[in-house]
């Protein structure tokens, strides 16, 4: 209880508990729960089939490290899709941010934390810049997000090629690679994984509990109603695309740290992977519904499938088929549930 | 005669080649229920949206408490104490009733958390529940998305929201259109109670018996202009329908 509430409030709060379904029921009905169960089932199946190699802590570390960069991208994408938008540019913005960050770190020179911080700031700023462009064009010029971000995908990737002449920048401060890139906290948890989860948890709380999150849902649910309620819809959309761009910038920096090269050609499908993860996680492409927890599950289902298939000796190409099926199945289940719930 | 609370003077509004309002006048007094009636396409919703800040008039003047005002946005209207129940209800279907009640005016958590942007969902639900109870809107679960609720419940939420926040004028665009008998009764009683608190209620309705039951005055729009205004008691339903269809013009004669 807070200091503002009076005694008169208390019986009403009790009433609230009565009227709301109990926690476990809300959990079962929660949009990310079915997909969490699927992830759990996958882990159980692979653990039973190959307990010694799949359940190994080194293997868990591998899965999480592979998923870390995608998790950062998917976190931003969750906000964008919850506003009923889409951002196809994040993979290309990731590459652009890595390129300008690497170029800047080499221009400054040296192998110390000062250079690394400069590189991080440049990567974030690069991502923020593209995100602001996306946001302005979507909110102010009213160009569909699909078209805007397809355009900035081409522009940011093209800019990366122009800057590098098409050759990957392979010179990255050694300290960055050995710490953030491949280092582990307490010799156990990779820094990449820790950073990615910190980002997901932080923005998960922002989406679920703050006014910024509430506006994100409101704009995605009914943009016109949000406008009439006095919510600054345009400004909010710009912020959301700026957030997705900035997180793509962070992802670019993390990718640079991990691979110690800019991997210009390696992120063509990052945008689709992030969208798939977010949608598998229960976020609605029509807006107004979505959770970061769901997106975390959605990121780890493909990661676990790929790893599990390798370990049990199935050709890993099957992973793509399985993920495609999970994607379609997840959306179908979501539609079914919504139809049964919403038709009155 | 008291000064009008809100007055629209010679409002013109076109959408492309469609002239929705052609110099429309409209007058609202405090402490009254005024019905705005007219046939389909007469410009009722456009006029209300203009006064609510959703549309900007091409020409004409809005006078509020004797002063000319410009209402550029719903926020401007809200600052004047004007709230609107839109025909489409303007609810965010995926959000719960409390969230809709406080849409754009979220209650923040006390202290540091509130400064950091955290909203107080419990407080918003509790206060919404009180408002719904006061207004006779029955909701089983205030944490369920509005999309899962019946048309009557949704209407109840939209009406409760407007009535809760208005301090001067409530516009209601067809507030009983989706309602059953009991809920219609509730809304009509509510309109009377809001008026008795000193507010002005502008009721847009096609339902003549309803209009004659609750309205103190009736203003008739036809083809984007006010063509008649009546006091209840001075007029029969035939007169009003005649004005709506163009058989009688009466503007300003009785008041």
**Mean of residue pLDDT of chain A?**
87
SS field, number of helical segments of chain B: 9
Uncertain runs of chain B are: none
For the largest beta-sheet of chain A, the strand count, sense and barrel status come to: 2 strands, antiparallel
How far from one another are the termini of chain B?
A: 10 Å
List keywords for this structure.
heterodimer, A: about 350 residues, mainly alpha, two-stranded antiparallel ribbon, 16 helices, 2 strands, disordered N terminus, B: about 260 residues, alpha/beta, six-stranded mixed beta sheet, four-stranded antiparallel beta sheet, globular
Kindly describe this structure.
Chain A has 344 residues and is mainly α. Chain A has helices at residues 9-19, 23-29, 33-49, 51-54, 57-82, 90-108, 113-139, 145-164, 174-181, 191-209, 211-221, 223-228, 233-259, 270-280, 292-312, 317-342, and strands at 184-185, 189-190. A two-stranded antiparallel ribbon of chain A has the order 1-2. Chain A is globular and about 55 Å long. Chain B is globular, with a radius of gyration of 19 Å. In chain B, 34% of the residues lie in helices and 24% in strands. Chain B has helices spanning 44-51, 74-79, 97-101, 111-115, 121-135, 151-165, 181-196, 208-214, 237-245, and strands spanning 6-15, 18-28, 33-37, 59-64, 67-69, 82-85, 169-173, 200-204, 217-222, 225-231. With 255 residues, chain B is of the alpha/beta class. At the A-B interface, α1, α11 and α12 of A face α2 and α5 of B.
Summarize this, please?
The complex is a heterodimer of chains A (344) and B (255). Chain A has 344 residues and is mainly α. Chain A has 16 helices and two strands.
Q: What is the topological layout?
A:
The complex is a heterodimer of chains A (344) and B (255).
Chain A: H1 9-19, H2 23-29, H3 33-49, H4 51-54, H5 57-82, H6 90-108, H7 113-139, H8 145-164, H9 174-181, E1 184-185, E2 189-190, H10 191-209, H11 211-221, H12 223-228, H13 233-259, H14 270-280, H15 292-312, H16 317-342
Antiparallel strand pairs in A: 1-2
Helix pairs in contact in A: 3-15, 5-10, 5-11, 5-13, 5-14, 5-15, 6-7, 6-8, 6-13, 7-8, 7-13, 9-13, 10-11, 11-13, 14-15, 14-16, 15-16
Chain B: E1 6-15, E2 18-28, E3 33-37, H1 44-51, E4 59-64, E5 67-69, H2 74-79, E6 82-85, H3 97-101, H4 111-115, H5 121-135, H6 151-165, E7 169-173, H7 181-196, E8 200-204, H8 208-214, E9 217-222, E10 225-231, H9 237-245
Parallel strand pairs in B: 3-8, 3-9, 6-7, 7-8
Antiparallel strand pairs in B: 1-2, 1-4, 4-5, 9-10
């Amino acid at each position: 209880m807070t200091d503002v509430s009076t005694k008169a409030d208390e019986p009403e709060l009790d009433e609230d508990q009565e009227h709301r379904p109990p926690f476990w029921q809300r959990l079962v009905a929660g949009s990310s729960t079915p997909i969490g169960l699927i992830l759990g089932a996958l882990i159980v199946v692979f653990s039973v089939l190959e307990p010694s190699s799949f359940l190994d802590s080194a293997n868990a570390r591998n899965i999480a490290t592979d998923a870390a960069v995608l998790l950062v991208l998917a976190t931003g994408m969750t906000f964008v899709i919850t506003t009923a938008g889409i951002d196809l540019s994040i993979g290309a913005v990731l590459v652009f941010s890595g390129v300008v960050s690497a170029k800047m770190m080499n221009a400054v020179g040296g192998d110390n934390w000062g250079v690394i911080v400069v590189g991080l700031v440049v990567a974030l700023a690069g991502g923020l810049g593209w995100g602001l462009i996306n946001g302005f064009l979507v909110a102010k010029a009213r160009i569909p997000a699909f078209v805007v971000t397809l355009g900035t995908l081409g522009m940011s990737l093209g800019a990366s090629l122009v800057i590098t002449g098409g050759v990957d920048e392979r010179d990255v401060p050694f300290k960055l690679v050995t710490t953030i890139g491949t280092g582990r906290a307490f010799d156990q948890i990779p820094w990449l994984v820790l950073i990615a989860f910190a980002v997901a948890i932080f923005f998960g709380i922002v989406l679920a509990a703050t006014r910024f999150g509430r506006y994100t849902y409101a704009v995605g649910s009914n943009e016109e109603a949000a406008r009439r309620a006095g919510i600054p819809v345009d400004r909010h959309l710009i912020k959301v695309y700026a957030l997705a761009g900035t997180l793509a910038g962070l992802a670019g920096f993390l990718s640079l740290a991990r691979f110690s090269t800019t991997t210009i050609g390696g992120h063509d499908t990052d945008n689709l992977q992030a969208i798939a993860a977010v949608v598998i996680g229960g976020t609605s492409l029509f807006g107004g519904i979505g959770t970061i927890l769901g997106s975390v599950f959605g990121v780890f289902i493909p990661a676990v499938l790929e790893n599990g298939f390798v370990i049990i000796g199935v050709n890993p190409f099957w992973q793509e088929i399985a993920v495609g099926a999970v994607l379609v199945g997840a959306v179908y289940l979501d539609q079914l549930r919504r139809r049964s719930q919403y038709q009155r | 005669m008291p000064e009008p609370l809100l007055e629209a003077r010679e409002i013109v509004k076109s959408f492309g080649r469609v002239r929705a309002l052609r110099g429309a006048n409209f007058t609202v007094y405090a402490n009254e229920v005024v019905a705005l009636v007219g046939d389909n396409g007469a410009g009722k919703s456009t006029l209300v949206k203009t006064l609510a800040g959703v549309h900007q008039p091409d020409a004409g003047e809005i006078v509020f408490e004797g002063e000319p005002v410009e209402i550029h946005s719903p926020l401007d209207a809200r600052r004047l104490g004007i709230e609107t129940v839109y025909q489409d209800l303007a609810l965010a279907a995926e959000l719960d009733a409390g969230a809709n009640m406080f849409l754009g005016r979220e209650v923040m958590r006390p202290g540091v958390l509130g400064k950091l942007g955290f909203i107080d969902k419990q407080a918003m639900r509790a206060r919404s529940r009180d408002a719904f109870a006061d207004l006779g809107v029955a909701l089983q679960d205030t944490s369920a998305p509005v999309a899962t609720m019946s048309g009557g419940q949704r209407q109840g939420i939209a009406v409760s929201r407007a009535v809760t926040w208005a301090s001067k004028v409530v516009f209601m665009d067809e507030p009983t259109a989706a309602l059953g008998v009991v809920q219609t009764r509730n809304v009509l009683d509510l309109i009377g109670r809001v008026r008795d608190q000193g507010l002005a209620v502008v009721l847009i309705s096609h339902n003549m018996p309803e209009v004659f039951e609750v309205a103190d005055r009736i203003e008739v729009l036809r083809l984007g202009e006010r063509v008649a205004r009546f006091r209840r008691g001075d007029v029969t339903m035939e007169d009003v329908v005649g004005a709506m269809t163009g058989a009688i013009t009466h503007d300003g004669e009785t008041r």
